[in-house]
Amino acid sequence: MSRELAKTYDPKGLEDRLYQKWLEKKYFHAEVDHSRTPFTIVIPPPNITGQLHMGHALDNTMQDILIRFKRMQGYNALWQPGTDHASIATEVKIIETMKAEGIDKHDLGREKFLERAWAWKKEYGGRIVSQLKKLGSSCDWDRERFTMDEGCNRAVTEVFVKMHKKGYIYKGARMINWCPVCNTSISDAEVEYQEQAGHLWHIKYPVMNEDGTPSTTEFLTFATTRPETMLGDTAVAVHPEDERYSHLIGKSVMLPIMNRVIPVVTDTYVDREFGTGVVKITPAHDPNDFEVGKRHNLPVINVMNDDATVNENGGKYCGMDRYAARKAIVEELSQQGLLVKIEDYSHNVGTHDRCKTTVEPLVKEQWFVKMEELIKPAVEAVKNGDVELVPKRLEKIYFNWTDNIRDWCISRQLWWGHRIPAYYCDQCGETVVAAQAPAVCPKCGCAHFTQDPDTLDTWFSSALWPFETLGWPEQTEDLQYFYPTDVLVTGYDIIFFWVIRMIFSGYEQMGEKPFKTVLFHGLVRDSQGRKMSKSLGNGIDPLEIIDKYGADALRLTLITGNAPGNDMRFYYERVENSRNFANKVWNASRFIMMNMEGKEVTEPEVSGLQPVDRWILSKLNTLIKDVTGNMESFELGIAVQKVYDFIWDEFCDWYIEMVKPRLYGTGETEIDRASQNAALWTLRTVLIDALKLLHPYMPFITEEIFCTLQSIGGESSGEESIVISRWPEYTAERSYGKEEKDIEIIKEAVRGIRNVRSEMNVAPSKKTAVVVASDREDILATFREGKLFFASLAGANQVDMLCRKEGGAAREGSLSGEEKELQEAGIAKDSVSVVIPGATLYIPLADLVDIEQEIQRLEKEQKRLEGELTRVNGMLSNERFMAKAPEEKVAQEREKLAKYTQMMEQVSQRLGQLKEGRLETV
RNA sequence: GGAAGCAUAGCUCAGCUGGGAUGAGCGCUCGCCUGACUAGCGGGAGGCCAAGGGUUCGAGCCCCUUUGCUUCCACCA
């Protein structure tokens, strides 16, 4: 079946059609196969509430590039997909929609609420998946998982029970971060500190007299940013060596409003330099105060309800919101004359990263993961390179967190999530942690239990993702074969939430790292460098971009012009450029196929290839080597940039143009036909390999062209899809150094000619021609000497080619129509012939360059060469350099020296001639 | 208070372990509808690589200092 490409590139329809085909053919499906090496990536599971945003697009593009690359290289490539239940994010969303209907979560009840949640999951969980497909993600969808599916539930329970048994999970009353809006505890990682303008209230408490009455003259003054917490004060602290207060040690002060007598304690935690050197201690509402309280056995008085209103411990302020209470308390203190002053003060306030509410530090009973032991292998792994972070500098951030690790609060007062497998005896209160509710209480024999109402932090299950998705806790074949995974691709913003937790979980549960490399990317920002956010309304919807420009264009845009781990800005202009590139590829392919139509293209002997053919093949060969190398070291942007340059610049702008005359030839003679065949074969060969190199980045367009190409021009490679085609390999035989150099000289010459022509503003006339010498060496010498700079190339971009014999007589049968025309037009007699096998330039002798200009140019060149020679000579005559530089390098430099010396001679000679007024014409 | 990153063409950014800045895209400018492509072709202008020191035969790249911007971490009331 021979198909034709549409006249213009239009990604619409095409992309969906091809993706459908890939799914049907099961190209993305991976099975255990011990004859092949696995390559595994697990997807960072997107939230079921999520809509595809630019961050996802970037993240998944990178993964897809890697997995497609490895698949083509012959690895058994598995990209394991799935979604995350995202407990708090989802629960908040559902509550919002319920609110719109006037329904309250607690009125509905847990069971009904969960029903709604599952319905939500069913409705929206698939949305993000279909969006990932739009992007071209080659995930093995047959293996799609969900963090709350049966297998993951089992994994979570298993881990919880196991770690509890080991003492790594415990329940305890500790200082936690409480979100009064979401009504749940949150972990340290979820607290975001924000600089906020506030006040520093200077307050004084009366010192107690010996007789038990508060003094009216002696006070202890201190400053606080949160006066309302005074309701829970249980001490006042000073530094033990602070002489200003040494006489008060052991005494007490009267807590106003509450009329409670509290002690003055000493603690080195107090900074003598700050404020008055006195701190009020509220163990229940400040992490530091909590620690101080523990050291001094102070009572912990919680004065706050879960919704951040004052509770019954707050006396008359009971029921008041924390901020209202603050105002009222300041007012009352002021009336009592205990308010010294109010200062403006800017300080960091902890907020909940999801709802931005100011978190309330509270002492509560929660479940925790003890981190001290667990974190050790995770630290060691990164230190010894077992797990590699790319870019490396992120290790610092990693270690900063691990070095200061604190126990992980994992219980959440939410309903949507994995319920904690802890059961409390209704009778004696005994706690049993087990996969299932026990039949009878081991302590009192009671048969009635109540399960802990709390659920687990959503990251608890995500931490198990790399192995739970492969079947753990079962010892499946998949697990043994695909684990540990190879690369994890993610943003640096979730290094604490996820990456670290996966690493220690992998070592703890599997005894093995979860992945070998973590490839980080940055944030996608808007064109002004701002974070894309809903509130700013500056988000760019990737789906809109895909709709307008195609997924290929979006992918290319996201992957180029950016170094690993750096943030990037998103510009529409860059997407347009990517789309234009796609169009370029499309049209070049169309051109090639047009010329191949109806012809049997056969592989020529190497000798049948012309120098330009060998040149582009050699260039391609180098490209294959470079691109493969870059991709293997995760330099994705650099790799594709090289492919881009090769296709657009070398292949389209040079090779195709150089080869056109051969294609347009009549094909009357054997020589012409052979030449044409060689050109066509080269065109097709280079195109196919270039498409393959491009495929991981632009899967759709490359597949479409690849498949069409298979049906045209005779022999096909037998590969049915580029998705599963073989990645091109570098072969030493296809490296043609000589041709590369020769063609570069010709290119340089042509550029020079165009340059001159443009500067002289020569009227375009594509029929003008000049030929300068008679054989290959001669013409190359001519180019090297720069003689061609004395003429300009008429015609536009084409570098036309003819073959001529020495003395200007055309080789039999090789005169093209154009050349005949030239002769007839009498142009040839004003020209000199050049033969470059495969290339002839037409240069009108009439267009001579200004000699002064040429002298200037040469002088500049001379100066440049002088500089070069100094540099190279400096290196080669340097003992230290010669001692430690690799041989290859030295050889390279020697070569340069020879080249520059030769060039220098020529330039000097030429310059001398010009200055003497010789050689104005060729 | 710690730590990291950035500072290269008008704009946004690449430049891998130190060895010629023919850097990329966009923009600007001049000329072209050349038988694939105006989503195109050809030419051009535009950079003392933030400042100052140092190491080196040689520094955009390594070291130190300074300035400006960004980000992360941290319990200073």
Largest sheet: 4 strands, antiparallel
Rounded radius of gyration (Å): 38 Å
Oligomer: single chain
Uncertain stretches of 5 or more adjacent residues? 763-780, 782-850, 918-922
What's the N-to-C terminus distance?
55 Å
- Mean residue pLDDT: 83
The count of β-strands is 25
Shape: elongated
In helices, the fraction of residues equals 40-55%
Assess the beta-strand content as a share of residues.
5-15%
Q: Give the strand order of the largest sheet, numbering strands 1, 2, ... along the chain.
A: 6-5-14-16
Structural class by sheet pairing and helices: alpha/beta
Number of helices: 27
Chart the SSEs and their pairings.
Elements: H1 14-25, E1 38-42, H2 54-72, E2 76-80, E3 82-83, H3 87-100, H4 105-108, H5 110-134, E4 145-146, H6 150-165, E5 169-179, E6 184-186, E7 191-208, E8 214-224, E9 235-238, E10 252-255, E11 260-266, E12 278-281, H7 287-296, H8 322-335, E13 339-352, E14 360-369, H9 375-383, E15 388-390, H10 394-403, E16 408-409, E17 411-412, E18 422-425, E19 431-433, E20 449-451, E21 455-456, H11 458-462, H12 465-468, H13 477-482, E22 485-491, H14 495-510, E23 515-521, E24 524-525, H15 542-549, H16 551-559, E25 568-569, H17 572-596, H18 611-632, H19 636-664, H20 670-694, H21 699-710, H22 737-760, H23 776-785, H24 817-824, H25 851-876, H26 879-884, H27 887-915
Parallel strand pairs: 1-2, 3-4, 9-11, 15-23, 22-23, 24-25
Antiparallel strand pairs: 5-6, 5-14, 7-8, 7-13, 9-12, 10-11, 14-16, 17-21, 18-19, 18-20
The protein binds one RNA strand of 77 nucleotides through strand 8, strand 12, helix 7, helix 10 and strand 25.
